[in-house]
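INFO worker-7 received task bundle
INFO bundle size: 2
INFO processing item 0
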Amino acid sequence: MTDPSELYADVEAEIGTLLIGMEEQIELLTIAALTRGHVLLEGVPGVAKTSLANVFATATGLDYNRIQMTPDTLPADITGTKVYREQTGHFEAQRGPVFANVVVADEINRATPKTQSALLEAMEENQVTIEGDTYPLPEMFMVVATQNPIEMEGVFELPEAQRDRFQVKVMVNLPSRDDELSLIERFHDDPTLTPDDVEQVVGRADLQRAREIVADIHVDESVEEYIVDVVGATRDHPDVSHGASPRATLAFLNTAKARAAIAGRDYVIPDDVKAMAEPILVHRLILSTEAELGEADRAAIVDDVLDSVVPPGGEQSAAEAEPVEQD
């Protein structure tokens, strides 16, 4: 089973046996896994952010390590260090928890910027350097970081360079009333239900082949131009001091291809780009001082950006735009 749409359907169905109402979040995690992306999960405590990452790794057959970030977490606690072995008389690399397929940096904004930066090389170059020696990370590697948006004490805002390396930011919101009722019923019927009850439904070979299919998805030149224009519009918005980088442009290209493949298409449409705009852009925009003081809504700015760029095939003729009044 290598078709991306079937792969996503199987993963979503299996995770759905435990978690309720997370179809959008599972889709974005799948898109990231198919495009070598990293994910920033944001939500209030208790909405199953860490559990989502855990069961996603289980369902896809990937190794999983969780790092609890705290103010006293050191870079070596993430990447590893070298230990002297008396038997051999040499220093031996002791690899840290970053050496896994899915690495969950739980409450990443509780770690200091110095510790957060320990993930930069891993996220960009798929390798880490331990005391001068470089070690490759697994081919299947993704960082899933979680953060709580409501706590202000004892946290450190992610640096711009760190945020830019997250392909998408995924909001995990409180469940709807119906979903919460379903949650009660599910755990009333089976109080012992845990992430361990989720089973693997996808193999690594399936993921690798699905990645290759995604890479071959067709993107028309007009859609490529649309992506560039959307990213360019973030740099011209009056509330934005620094817009999205070329890394965001590539994120649009890759995630739009993955979304098309999950939908069963072998070509990208403008709606794929629009659907990925908020997850890709909302954490990358650096607002102007006035916008920050005015607590401007980044999602609303993304909507403004999309409204300012005409998608392929979206041009209107003058007659359609301004109907002529007849006497």
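INFO item 0 finished
INFO processing item 1
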Amino acid sequence: MGTLYLVRHGQASFGADYYDQLSALGQRQSERLGRYWAERGLRFDAVLTGTLKRHAQTWAGIASGAGLDAQPLVWPGLNEYDSEAVIRSIHPHPLQKPDSPEAYRAHFRLLRDGLAQWMAGTVSPQGMPEYTDFVHGITSALDHVRSHHHGQNVLLVSSGGPIATAVGHVLGLSPDATIELNMRIRNSAVTEFQFSARRHTLLTYNTLPHLDGPDYQEWITYA
């Protein structure tokens, strides 16, 4: 049996003009996770990431903290959906950048609704694949891990949507349940699958062992 560690990227730049960039805190979260694993002697036989900048930066932070130098396999199917395109598919009018708790809640209500309709095939967000193709991009990465890395430790760095989709696929969850997983996942959170040549099994979801303790409570973020 092998273990697949799925990590959501560190805090990015939600609400900024350019989201796909780790914040200073996101960089610290990533490096802290690497140090945590190094302290426990965890090494990886293979690393997969999406193509987004925040994925590469998160892996670089983990590698720096852990003293790793592996060359990751870049897998485009691990990229996040375009949340703005999802929202525009059901709300074509321009939205102001969220700048208050109420505005943030409204943003995520629209995102939930848009995701549900995309998953049901009701809408086709501009520039995005059909939902079945999005799922295939993720499950193909899981299949690759099972077929090429049996008995090994594998790290996968991606985003909340793909990781929640992977968990939903393994557990056979409904679209609504998968969306709720997506909305709850935290930055730099670790999800673990045990895997054999035949299947993946969920061990943990959305954990932050590297941020456990009073010194790191303010490091816990969601966007």
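INFO item 1 finished
INFO post-check item 1: The beta strands are 2-8, 46-49, 73-74, 153-158, 190-195, 200-207.
INFO post-check item 1: DSSP finds seven helices and six strands in the chain.
INFO worker-7 idle
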